Amino acid sequence: MKLNSARQVWHDAYHQPWDSVMAGAMDRAKLGMDEAGGYVRKLVTELTEDGKEITYPKYVFVPGIHQTRPERDISTSRAVHQALSAHIQRAIDTLPGYIAAFGHWMYSPMGSPDHKETAEAAVALFAYDRHGRMTAKKAERAKYVAAGVLHRYRRMHQGGQSSMADPLISPEAFRAWLDGEYGVRLSSEQWSREWGAFIQHCFDVCNDIDKQALAPVAAVIGEMKEAA
């Protein structure tokens, strides 16, 4: 694992250092390792800093790997990777669930539809708060707009390098995507007045949650570099 960016390290901490799932299984079989563990899904409800409730699925890992051959049989590089990954994963586990879900959807190879749903709900919730009052009809459409902004933000940071262009930067492309993805048709009339501010709030929320998610990872990276 290279200690480059916090985004890349988040990804690498959950990435198996084998060429493929099958190769990994064969490798573990050679080492005499029995697997019976996995992630257990639980629904958790917690309060945000603003006192609002948010429910999200949390996956708790239950260890199940039992090694029947000496630890020295595992390659040094893999052992180092596992040790570094454990530090990063512990840091991520300190995050509130909805922030961790955002990070997993953004950067983790184990990002799931549940992480996506939780991240979308969080972005919509905080963007609503910043935007202020809106009609029920607009609020219903706004949750899809928030989901679309998260999609754009994720694509822009794809791979953890933050080097991708916004794939839906034009209003026409964004409206077409919302229609194709969710069947939500938004009028082009007074687009900036109607949706400009809310879209910007969504991007700001994504940026804020992203920073909160990456902060403990960046802290661990700093500690590791100092210790090296």
Describe the structure.
With 228 residues, this protein is mainly alpha-helical. The protein has one domain (6-227). The chain contains eight helices and four strands; from the N terminus they run ααββββαααααα. A two-stranded antiparallel sheet has the order 1-4. A two-stranded antiparallel ribbon has the order 2-3. The radius of gyration is 20 Å and the shape is globular. It starts with 5 loop residues before the first helix and ends with a helix. Residues 18-37 and 65-73 have low confidence and may be disordered.
Key structural traits:
globular; two-stranded antiparallel ribbon; 8 helices; mainly alpha; single chain; 228 residues; two-stranded antiparallel sheet
Q: What's the total number of strands?
A: 4
List low-confidence stretches: 18-37, 65-73
How do the strands line up in the largest sheet?
Answer: 1-4
Largest sheet: 2 strands, antiparallel
Helix and strand run: HHEEEEHHHHHH
Radius of gyration: 20 Å
Shape: globular
Produce a short descriptive summary.
The chain is mainly α.
Itemize the secondary structure elements and their pairings.
Blueprint: H1 6-13, H2 21-30, E1 33-34, E2 38-47, E3 53-62, E4 66-67, H3 76-93, H4 97-107, H5 113-131, H6 136-156, H7 171-182, H8 191-227
Helix pairs in contact: 1-3, 1-8, 3-8, 4-5, 4-8, 5-6, 5-8, 6-8
